[in-house]
Batch of 2 targets.
Target 1
Amino acid sequence: MTRFPTGRFNNARRAAVLAVLAGACGGSEPGVARGELIFDACSPCHGDDGAGKRELGAPAIAGGSGWYLTAQLLKFQSGARGYHHADAEGLRMRPMSRALFADKGDIESVVEYVVSLPIPDPPATAQGGNAQAGEAEYVQLCANCHGRDGRGVDLGVPELNAPSLLHLNDWYVESSLRKYRDGVRGVGDAAGATMRAPASGLTDERIRDVTAYVMTMQRLPRKIAAPPPPPLPPVDADPAILPEGVTVAMAQEGQEIFNGTRGICFTCHVREGRGGALAPSLADDEWLNIDGGYESIVSIVMTGVPEPVEYPGTMQPRAGMPLTDDEVRAVAAYVFTLSR
């Protein structure tokens, strides 16, 4: 099997790699064997073992979940990643991804092969960073999506899942957080927008702290997603306090949307609207942008909050999701009951 030496990734080498990839794509049925051939085009940057190469800015991909690797390749192909002039690594990856043909099984094959590789345990290389301070930051900003243990959260919807962090290089964690903060990454897709909110206010020091903490987490098992959250309690609302046209059934539907994958409101407001570092509590009678009336809640969910008053997390119209008007009104009904 052909392997390329480490070094400067110039145009000649890129052409050679693409030629290998093109040959691999036409020679076998989809599956691990085909994926191993295709991976010859990936190994010059990501390493034969998929453990990444810092000198090329290529992260560890062995140990990644199949859904995440697939989603990233599709984002590179579509331009949702690798679009920014300051993202040299992404710009390098984008044309490589476009040599893969989804209809021929190239993506599923190479992902299947990468998932089969032994999971690396990258050593800590970053300088500085206070892991104790980083733990506090992580719990407030990261744990709700990536899990308290960093193993990721699988909601069953690739666009909304959060990947494990436990196989990643520390330099890549730092680099990614800076890119999200600076708008170099995370523009144009729902998951990226969700990541940009907690990263937007991070200083370089805080990024180093979070990275230091991530590297201290228990590193096995890594491909097992964290257990699902406990069931939600029944909506306890007195029909007499509900506005005209609002029913308990609407509030119950809104509870599922708010705390699930249809609305993802919980990623900032936390489950059951308790509030966190990114967004305020909705379970009290204090309101920052509206008066708390039902129609004002409907309006703010519809239009979003592009410039938050006190919190770093911006709120997209309809939470950045394809919510119908009826679903928005159901979410508003649930939020209305939380503060009563």
Target 2
Amino acid sequence: MKKTIKQCSFIMILVLIFSSGIGYSITRAIPVGYLPGASENSWIQKVVAKDASLKAITHPTIALNLFSDEREITDSTGAIYNRSGKKLETLVTDKNPAEILEKTLIEQFQKAGFTVIRTSGWDLSAEKIPGYLEADMIVGGRVKTFWVESKAGFITSTIQSKVVYDLVFADIHQKKIMDEKELVGSDTRKSLAHISDYFWMDIQTSISQSLTRAVNDSF
């Protein structure tokens, strides 16, 4: 009987530890993507229109260079905190943030009527613009922030997310930088308690909204 009581007590202690987040952390993968119905491709056209050598080209070809990841934290993309500030869960994306951003930009270029090819090795400088590519332009960038977090309140939780990246456009024929800018997208919203299914939908929507706004950020 005493042995059974001890076993039950031990199990109850484990349950309390897990539920309070002490010494236990879950890693959860969340899908992230560009939100439909939010397409704003005019900035792509404006970049091309700035270059006289590209105006006569009906369907320009863009070479998308492999993005570098310069985030301070590269092994996760978010966190869930309880009311006391203790981290309960670590969030990761279903794909690498650089891959998500590259895929989203390619889709936007294609929707704007451009042909896209993939490349790598460009250091984003005018001196190293690769002239051997069969393309009219090259675009590359650096991922600087890709993060979403939630902090629990009394009834609701506050979700905040942010996506920041550098984007560089260059004319391959003239070997010159056409535009370079830091692009930013952010989102803040309230959600129900962490146990709600709606909460996880809000987490996904928030970081996807930040991604969408960063991609649509105008030059």
